[in-house]
Write a structure and sequence with these properties.
31% of the residues lie in helices and 26% in strands. By secondary structure, it is an alpha+beta fold. Strand 4 and strand 5 form a beta hairpin. The structure holds zinc ion.
């Protein structure tokens, strides 16, 4: 067991990299370590929602084609206000079986493995480049990767951008080759407020939103009925487009006509479908909703429907060199689809074929007392080195 692996993971967990904060100090820490291990580094500074953020690119090996990208995100989901925590989320704790801390599975454990593999790798033996790509703001729409993907070749200089990427999201080392696109949207209903004693002078926005929700519910039911047999083996749990009503807020008090109600929702479309085609249909159905209050008068509400964020799907054809290497080294025998989206959405959009395979447990991601199994954590650097040997040496 390498103490360096645990040292790096402890330090990474201690950086508070919740997506609403900057990852820059953690990026600088990793850049120092990777350059200390003989990697060239470039910090890609970006501005996300008014906050300075940074992605990190680090590479070794000659400027030959057909190298390998190994990538993970540094940001984490929030822990403040999340019920169930019995440990300090920013302090690594270890027991006989597991290592605890926010991001241990998703996905600082994998990033610590990258540092350990970089340290022990015989860089002089590389025939093709190894490129580590560490991103910001994955958890909030993969915004770091969205900025980085088109800029990657520029940062790499004379190193040809590899066309295969290994994403170490938590999968307990199973291999995933696809995921759906994701689109989040907002529906804003503006009615007219007033005293609840005279409902006919106003329009209750919550009442009109109820009709909107019913229209969306009908779409959900139709989508579920439209199962696509050709992707049943890739997405066995949901071979169809899925939708989720996320948040709803509106109204002031029980005795006030609600003037405004806002719903936020998202859907995930199969890789074969245009992610925004469904949004057009959602808009069309919402525009057909009766905008009168149930017990109101002649007045009608305004409804505005807007896209908040849309990220493409990921689809990598089976049988790539990377798939073969991952199968040989991890013992995985097949690949299927992920239920979640990844940075692979944006890497795919510039022509990089991605596979998802990592040491963390998917059911630990985003959970209180998040942890990673020590066995999976400790064997990771050797898995990574063996994959690099097959791909780049
Ligand atoms: Zn993740």
């Amino acid at each position: 067991m390498s103490t360096y692996l645990y040292e790096v993971l402890e330090r990474l967990i201690a950086f508070d990299t919740v997506s609403s904060r900057t990852v820059l100090p953690a990026v600088e820490y990793l850049a120092d370590h990777l350059s200390g291990h003989g990697f060239k580094t470039a910090i890609h500074r970006i501005d996300v929602l008014g906050l300075p953020q940074a992605n990190l690119v680090a590479w070794a090996g000659p400027p030959s084609p057909d190298g390998l990208i190994i990538t993970g995100h540094l940001d984490t989901v929030p822990f403040e206000g999340q019920p169930g925590w019995e440990r300090n989320p920013l302090q690594m704790e270890i027991d006989a079986e597991r290592v605890y801390g926010r991001g241990s599975s998703d996905m600082k454990g994998f990033l610590a493995q990258c540092a350990e593999a970089a340290r022990t790798l015989d860089k002089a033996r590389l025939k093709r480049p190894v490129v580590f790509v560490i991103t910001a703001d994955e958890e909030v729409g993969m915004l770091g990767a969205r900025e980085l993907a088109p800029a990657l070749q520029g940062l790499l200089g004379d190193i040809p951008r590899p066309s295969l990427a290994w994403i170490g999201e938590p999968t307990s080392y199973s291999v995933l080759h696809a995921h759906k696109s994701i689109c989040s949207f907002e529906v804003r209903v503006r009615g007219r407020g007033g005293h609840s004693g005279t409902p006919h002078h106003g329009v209750n926005a919550i009442a009109v939103m109820a009709r909107v929700i019913e229209a969306l519910g009908r779409i959900q039911a139709e989508l579920r009925a439209e199962q696509k047999p050709d992707v049943a083996d890739v997405f066995p749990e949901s071979p169809y487009d899925v939708m989720n009503l996320g948040t709803v807020r509106g109204g002031l008090a029980t005795n006030v006509i609600a003037e405004e109600c806002v719903l936020r929702a998202s859907y995930r479309s199969l890789p074969s479908t245009d992610p925004l085609a469904l949004f057009d249909e959602i808009k069309r159905r919402i525009s057909a909703v009766d905008r009168h209050d149930f017990a109101g008068g002649e007045l009608i509400a305004d409804i505005e429907t807007t896209v908040l964020l849309a990220a493409p799907s990921m689809w990598t054809e089976r049988g790539s060199r990377l798939e073969k290497a991952l199968f040989e080294v991890t013992g995985a025998r097949t690949a299927r689809g992920a239920q979640f989206a990844t940075d692979g959405a944006w890497f795919s959009s510039v022509g990089i074929q991605c596979l998802i395979c990592g040491p963390g447990d998917y059911n630990q991601a985003h959970q209180p007392n998040e942890s990673i199994g020590r066995e999976a954590l400790e064997r990771g650097p050797s898995i990574m080195t063996q994959v690099i040997e097959r791909m780049c040496m």
